[in-house]
Amino acid sequence: xxxxxxxxxxxxxxxxxxxxxxxxxxxxxxxxxxxxxxxxxxxxxxxxxxxxxxxxxxxxxxxxxxxxxxxxxxxxxxxxxxxxxxxxxxxxxxxxxxxxxxxxxxxxxxxxxxxxxxxxxxxxxxxxxxxxxxxxxxxxxxxxxxxxxxxxxxxxxxxx
Length: 160
Fold this sequence. Notes:
By secondary structure, the chain is of the alpha+beta class. The protein has a domain at about 10-105: 2-Layer Sandwich (Alpha-Beta Plaits). It is about 40% helix and about 35% strand. A four-stranded antiparallel beta sheet has the order 2-3-1-4.
């Protein structure tokens, strides 16, 4: 996780690589992009290797129409003043069909030990059981009606 410093923000780069590569070549292109980011001072948080996926619609790039592309994403921290330089580099990269960079808020997660988690689950279950028990006690018991009385009431309702 990126520590909040003065000018470092968290971003997510989502990209589509050209399908003209095989899997190994796409992975090499992706790794070179990661190295470029790290060279600019970015701190990589999460990345997903490219996977060949069908596109929702055909994309025309460099006089070619693409129906599939390698999808990947990178979550990273980078100084806001370096974003323009990164976007220029990405615009000049002919291997990319499409990309988008989004500023991302990273939520901190709290680590809980399994025993603590079980205890909290047990406590919540006990509270729910007590609520259910209380509602059952507060509920008035229904009076029993004989079959003849039920028939009379049904006839009254149907004859109206």
